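We were asked to recover a plausible sequence for a given structure. The inputs and outputs are reproduced exactly as logged, with field labels preserved.

PROBLEM: sequence recovery
POSITIONS: 217
GIVEN STRUCTURE:
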């Protein structure tokens, strides 16, 4: 009986730890995506001007004439003090129609003009290109480019394809909250707004992610 009790106690403590490690892996993957894009594609000025960001590492994008996409990633907003919030985990799902053949993993970054769209994501699904206007983001090979960007679109998208596609279309894709992932890292009482505005977890993975964003400056 004592052995069983010890095993059960160990399991109780190990499950949350494993869940947190899984979500921290997602954060580390998002940091790697930002590092790959920095100075190569996304202009620093656009990151500075944006009020929110979504990073989807290795979104699966594939199809034969009628394509589909699905990915899990995270969202962050800039707080009033100019610092990036803790991440909220999100999902993206949707389809597209066109001449496309193949299956590939695509790194996707979405920059938001306003934080309000992300703050309200918990109230229901958002359709990119429907509820939120999306435009392909301007590309700069130098993070020190001096172009002054004015955020005319609500969302700017960047993608890095590793397979047969030259890029990815996100119009029609749906954004939603990944409740299970958020619960795994923050607990069941956490909400999107509380994570964005109040949460300040002690995590090296989150610190590295913020540092990657700050390095665009």
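RECOVERED SEQUENCE:
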């Amino acid at each position: 009986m004592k052995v069983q009790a010890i095993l059960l106690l160990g399991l109780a403590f190990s499950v949350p730890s494993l869940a947190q490690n899984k979500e921290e892996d997602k954060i580390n993957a998002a940091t790697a995506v930002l590092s790959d894009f920095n100075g190569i594609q996304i202009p620093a000025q656009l990151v500075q001007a944006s009020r929110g960001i979504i990073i989807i590492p290795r979104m699966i994008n594939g199809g034969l004439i009628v394509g589909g996409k699905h990915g899990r990633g995270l969202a962050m907003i800039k707080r009033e003090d100019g610092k990036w919030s803790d991440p909220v985990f999100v999902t993206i799902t949707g389809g597209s129609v066109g001449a496309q053949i193949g299956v590939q993993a695509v790194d996707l970054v979405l920059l938001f003009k306003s934080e309000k769209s992300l703050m309200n994501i918990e109230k229901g699904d958002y359709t990119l290109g429907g509820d939120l206007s999306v435009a392909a983001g301007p590309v700069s090979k130098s993070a020190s480019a001096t172009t002054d960007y004015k955020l005319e679109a609500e969302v700017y998208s960047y993608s890095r394809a590793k397979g047969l596609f030259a890029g990815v279309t996100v119009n029609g894709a749906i954004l939603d909250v990944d409740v299970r992932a958020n619960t795994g890292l923050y607990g069941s009482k956490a909400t999107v707004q509380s994570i964005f505005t109040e949460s300040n977890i002690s995590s090296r993975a989150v610190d590295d992610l913020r540092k990657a964003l700050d390095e665009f400056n």
